Amino acid sequence: MQTDSAAVPPAATQETPPHVQVIQLAYPSYVVSRALFAVAHFGIADHLKDGPEDVERLAATTGTHAPTLRRVLRLLASYGLFRTDEAGRVALTPLGAALRSDAPGAARSTILTLAGDLFWSAWGEVLYSLRTGQTGLEKAHGQGLFDVLAQRPEEATHFNAAMIGFHGGEPAAVAAAYDFDSIGTLVDVGGGTGNLLGTILKAHPHVRGVLFDLPHVAAEAEQRLAAEGLADRCEAVGGDFFEADLPGGDAYLLSHIIHDWGEDECLRILANCRRAIGRSGRLLIVETVVRAGDEPDFGKLSDLVMLVVPGGQERSEEEYRSLLGKAGFRLSRVVPASSTVSVIEAVVS
After folding, report:
1. How many alpha carbons fall within 13 Å on the CB side of residue 339?
2. CATH architecture assigned to 18-103
3. Global pTM value
4. Would you please indicate which residues are annotated as catalytic (active-site) residues?
5. Residue 160's closest CA among 273, 256, 95?
6. Positions in the chain short of pLDDT 50
7. 169-348 homologous superfamily
8. Residue 48 and residue 58: Cα distance in Å, rounded?
């Protein structure tokens, strides 16, 4: 299939016809996305970690079709991930080395998640989402994201790593942006394996932490926090943030939790926090706050991912103000971090 757009779209200029600009929004982004998924799936970068390799031998090692593998690598080489030497062997570039399983940042796990079959199937139901406002993933699989991941441990492992890799330097940015030193005990509700909480505790030595998550997640978090030397300042408690009573604390942290759920579920989570929090306590929500206007904004992109995959949404400041008000909180301020997120501070109204 041929189009008026090149394989690697040039920057749009006034001379670029509108129809070409529109086509370039759709093509080739999904082609590159799935090509990256394919090489991540077959661990191509891991097999090239020791140096250049003949494509036929690489294909035999990875169980792929050599001529096709060469074509995929040729495309990704045009994006700077691979290079071909004078002998025709393929090698990693510094950019491509980020796809190795042991590379910092978890790019491989992130690609296996975001460009993988589970998310891909959800986007296949985007028309259903647009017609109903419901998650495409649940339409495709008959279950929500977290129920599906509970039955697919390998994909769940990549998903958990992806959440750490995808948010990158965000924990340090959040720890620096907000004055956590004024908090005695911080309860991280749905805190995962403790990446954010551990970063906050290291940056603010006077704070004590409690991580609250599902029992199997809390057990993993306990091991991780202990390995980071935080066992004496932090405990991990297992439970369900929809149902269980939350541990006591001075402030409650919800990081990338609220955007995963629809309003009814959010109000249940917030109501549980409201029951636990004291009159002088604070609720801290770490999320992307969607900016007003028509300018490009990561939150607007993430918002559609939240719709189609877990069934939640990103919100504007006014939408957070309204949601929090329904749960008995008052939004007191929004503290931007040097990343795509902000700390939304709320108090009991």
Report:
1. 18
2. Orthogonal Bundle (1.10)
3. 0.86
4. 259
5. 256
6. 1-10
7. Vaccinia Virus protein VP39 (3.40.50.150)
8. 8
